[in-house]
Design goal:
Blueprint (H helix, E strand, L loop, with lengths): L5 H20 L6 H9 L4 H17 L9 E8 L12 E6 L2 H20 L16 H17 L3 E6 L11 H10 L4 H10 L3 E7 L2 E2 L3 E3 L10 H8 L1 H4 L8 E6 L2 E8 L2 H13 L4 H7 L10 E5 L15 E2 L2 E2 L1 E2 L2 E4 L2 E4 L4
Parallel strand pairs: 1-4, 9-12
Antiparallel strand pairs: 1-2, 3-8, 3-9, 4-5, 4-6, 7-8, 10-11, 13-14
Helix pairs in contact: 1-3, 1-4, 6-7, 6-8
Length: about 350
């Protein structure tokens, strides 16, 4: 049945008109080099708006997504500060998409985000990629949870997780399953199922451009939809823990952190090990979502109360997948240095 929800198509025109109005407002501030862009793009919106409206509506009425829209150029950029640029993981792929479908996916992303926020479809501790949230919220929440535990005379252990190739490794079938689980309307799930298969891209390194390459999995970093789809994709990871059982989890897009609270760091370390290894735990999520944890980058930090004397003669070690997780006293998380005494 063709989709004729007025709110979706009303958003198409509203978004475009608002963009045009914004451009007119800022026209006086344009530099000479920007004037050409304004005249050739912004002023053409009234001419193309109705055409875009019917093109976008047809993608839903006819259940199609043009193959031409599925071709992109992937700019491969160096991640700053990496020690070895001979490794693929030292680079970040950014998808440069066709502009017309990008307008459409922006509208769909805005609608899905509205539904997610209106109906509270994501964990409250999933802060990234959501309106009204910043990295500061994550840090403040972590500090609050640690201080709250200290006031009860408890110790806190924090496991900082690292997912290797988060966006490129997302599996379409699992994404659709998670969208259905979060009760995202079927019309959007059908659209995403048409959007993701049979994509092709050309890799661009400096002056080199490859031939078209098939894309089997993943979300394009550069697609307006990718952010909201990924935070739905990995939301289950944050729901592995029970806050009533002195456990918690915090997320900021693909950065996830697990907290365990107990009488001492021996108890908290055991809790973290159980969260990761139990049936349906962290490692199960990793396998089901094709999201491998890079154990060498996992970090453990025990938050110690001021003036607390550690009664353990030997500090417990956290082992995940037969590898010892590195313990630190200070860690840079989302650009903020956090130490185990909150000093």
């Amino acid at each position: 049945m063709p989709y004729s929800n007025w709110s979706l198509w009303g958003t198409v025109k509203y978004t475009s008109v608002m963009s045009l109005s914004s451009a007119h407002t800022k026209h006086a501030e344009l530099t000479r080099s920007q004037t050409w862009y304004y005249k050739n793009h912004c002023l053409s919106l009234p001419i193309i708006l109705d055409h875009l409206y019917f093109i976008f509506k047809a993608t839903f009425d006819l259940g199609v997504y043009p193959q031409e829209w599925k071709q992109s150029i992937t700019a491969v950029l160096r991640k700053p500060g990496k020690p070895n640029y001979k490794l693929a993981k030292a680079y970040r792929p950014i998808a440069l998409l066709n502009t017309i479908p990008k307008v459409l996916t922006s509208i769909i992303a805005e609608n899905i985000t509205h539904l997610v926020e209106k109906h509270s479809l994501l964990p409250k501790t999933h802060f990234g990629g959501r309106p009204g949230h910043t990295t500061g919220d994550v840090v403040h929440y972590l500090v609050h949870r640690i201080k709250e535990a200290w006031q009860r005379g408890k110790a806190v252990s924090i496991l900082f997780l690292d997912v290797e190739g988060a966006f490129p490794n997302a599996v379409t079938d699992r994404l659709i399953h998670n969208l259905r689980k979060r009760k995202i309307p079927k019309v959007y799930m059908d659209f995403i199922e048409r959007l993701l298969p049979n994509r092709k891209t050309k890799l661009k390194f400096d002056d080199f451009m490859s031939e078209l390459i098939n894309i089997d999995n993943g979300l394009g970093q550069g697609d307006p939809l990718s952010m909201v789809l990924y935070i739905i994709y990995n939301a289950d990871l944050l729901e592995l823990v029970d806050i009533e059982d002195n456990k918690d989890a915090v997320g900021y897009v693909d950065d996830a952190t697990i907290l365990a609270i107990g009488d001492d760091i021996g108890e908290t370390t055991d809790k973290l090990h159980l969260i990761m290894h139990e049936e349906g735990g962290g490692l199960t999520w990793s396998e089901d979502h094709n999201s491998r944890f890079e154990v060498s980058k996992l970090v453990l930090m025990h938050a110690v109360r001021p003036r607390q004397i550690d009664e353990l003669e030997t500090r417990p070690r956290l082992e995940i997948n037969c590898q010892i997780v590195t313990e630190v006293n200070s860690y840079k998380y989302l650009g903020v240095h956090i130490d185990n005494r909150l000093q």
